[in-house]
## 1
Amino acid sequence: MVHYKIYSDYLFYSYLLDECQLDIFFTMAKTYNLDCPVARTLDLVGERWTMLILRDLLLEGPRRFQDLQESLDGVAPNTLSARLKAMEQQGLINGRLYSEHPPRLEYQLTEKGKTLGPILQALRDWGKRHTTK
């Protein structure tokens, strides 16, 4: 007989994973932590939605939270907020207050963020050549 346990939306067979293995699974590092330029770059831009946020800011210029949420169909507000906060901490974007009550920000690329433009262009070109709609 198989016993099931539900852990944070994941269903595991109890005979496959014990509690120790689950702790390791749920605390997996969010960074590569490698001394490699590609890994360090992915630490900055490798999370889901980050490159698409950069795309929108490169193509459209400064954008408000609502604009980004509408453009990125399927992104949860808390996820978008977390990505924007992380990107701001990494120096890729900055937020400018445009309303104090309630506080609202407009996001724009920093000079550092703008330097990712050629990388996004290369990804776009590769996708046009090697993927289908």
## 2
Amino acid sequence: MGKIGKIDLGQQIKKIFHSSKEFMLDMGNYVYEDGMFIPTAREIEEGSIIHFNFTLQDRKSILRGTGKVQSISRKPPLGWKILFVELDERSKKNLQMIIDWKRKHGQS
């Protein structure tokens, strides 16, 4: 009988926000066209694949997808810079709205 290997589900990052305004205040500055910075003290290796889902209380996704850890900040702010590998269609539209808002408000 063959040995069954472990299934690596990757790191899962989930956070629920009360409103899109709360998301923008908390995470908006960390979102870029090709990825985002996720503030966290959790340990991970560069190159790791993560699954993320940032939603509103009514369960509507803001950003949901898969990313690859590009770099790790071990000094404040602690966290991971990820590159987007895959985003669902709603997240792609929301990402563009976030980027447009940042440009409009001089935060690109």
## 3
Amino acid sequence: MIITHPSPKQIRSWSDAGAPLGDRIGRHIDQCDRCASRLEDIAAIGSTVGDVLRAALAAPAGLAERTEKALERRRPDRESMAVAFDFFGAATDTAKVILFVPEA
């Protein structure tokens, strides 16, 4: 009797699909220690890779707080903004006087 074992790729795909019960691969894994062991290895590798990726992609500790403080330091205060708007208003009034001569 020739036994054809599913490939590691087929086992991974089967596992990723939610390990449907009663299908050919599932029945084979239930009866084959070799393939059951391969499934456990694949699951262990998958969780290890996931842990490494989560750690590598996680934001550094305190990033949100440091970013908020940096933005707060760069935010202009109300007094500075009032002075800037006053200068803008004066410039606008000057431009109106120079460019728009009222007709008599």
## 4
Amino acid sequence: MPEFTNPFIGVVPRKMTLSELTRAIRLDLAAEHEAVHIYEAHAEATDNELAKKVLLDIAEEERVHAGEFLRLLNILIDDEEKFLAQGADEVNEMAEDTPNNTHQQSSSVLSIGNLKKSN
């Protein structure tokens, strides 16, 4: 539930350490994912085309925000990309072994991981 009524909820009484900052950004990332879920659920629950269109547009914007937070974490934490790449590789291996996998791997998507592998 929103805590807008508490004027101190967003106030940090001192500068955060890097560890605290990265935890805060992970929370921000989770909030973006939650917002996407909520907006998509609301869009699916209505027959009003305008509301559906606006809600899905906002959900897409939240996905962009999630990407921004994720990129920031990749910059702030030295080994973050390594762990994310490891997880992606594990899923790719499972996808290759899964019959009727409808999602094709895209090696054309440019990422830091792709750039590192090509060097």
